[in-house]
Structures are given as structure tokens and as C-alpha cells.
Amino acid sequence: MGKYDIKIADNSVRVDVLDSAELISSRVVNDLIPKLPKESPVVGLDLHSRKKGRGVRSANSVLVLCIDAYCLVIQLKYVDKISENLKKFLDDKNTCSVSVGVHRKLSRGAPPPLNPLLCKTAVELSHLAWRIRQDSSYCNSDLKALATKDKVSYEPPVSK
Question: What's a single GO MF annotation on this record (predicted)?
């Protein structure tokens, strides 16, 4: 669907937005996997869906996978099936997928073929912060609260 180069605090990030299983499969093999570090690979993972109103979520969800300065944004509404390469990538027990609130978001409804994969592999960033900092106030914090606790300036993006 599109390639974008964006700047985030003086850092360039390449973003591919995809809506087809074949393209997703190709990008996973050619772009995501080669960017994984050999030791302790970590993938940023997020799931977004817009509200239609009164708490009802639209079917227009996106899955975001990020490694270093590369992000793959998958428009799930247009994807008829989850490719085997994406399933293998998400199911790889050697890769740590880190997210904030992904389990809560999944409970609101991820596409069924994706849900069990994300539940198995995603680690809550707030839980990791709580374990590392030995401070229970980190547990169940959203990204802005985590950033604030560590004195990092953060403003979430505004959806249009």
C-alpha cells in the first residue's frame, strides 16, 4: 500500500503499510527477519483499532511490528488470511515481542487467526518495567505513564 520515511525525534524510521497476505509474507522474510539481532531479538508489537462510538470497535484494525528503525503496519481489514511466514515469525519462541496493553486490546477483539499467536508471544512492557524496577506502580501502566515514571517526554500520536 505504501512506503514512508518518517522522523521521530531526529531518528529516521521506514514504515511499510501493507494490506495483502503475499506482500506481508515477503516483507516478513525480506525485511523483518534480517533486521532481528542474533542475540536477544526483540520486536515491538502493537494492535490498534478505532472506536466507532460508544465503546464499539471498528473492524479497521492494524497490527504494527517494529524492529530498530523499521516498522511493518498490517491493515488487517484487507487481509483475508494470515501468511505462514507471519505465523512463524509471531510464534518464534526465540524472539521477544514487547507491547503495552496488547492483552487488553486482544480481549476487545483481534482477528481470530491472529489472537492465539499474539497471546502466546507478547510480553507486557509494564510487567517488564515492574520486574526490573522492583516497583509495583509500573505494573499495568500505559506507555505514557511508563515514560513519565522514567522522566521521558512522550505524547501519543493522534488518530485522525
Answer: nucleic acid binding
Q: What is the pLDDT of residues 45-88, one digit of tens each?
A: 877 776 666 655 555 678 888 898 899 988 887 777 778 888 88
Examine residue 160 and state whether it is found in any structural domain, yes or no: no
Q: Across the strands, what pairs with 5?
A: 14
How many CB atoms are located within 10 Å of the residue 129 CB?
A: 19
Q: Is residue 154 part of a domain?
A: no
**CATH number, domain containing residue 85:** 3.30.420.10
Contacts of 129 (CB under 8 A, 6+ apart): 135, 138, 141, 146, 149
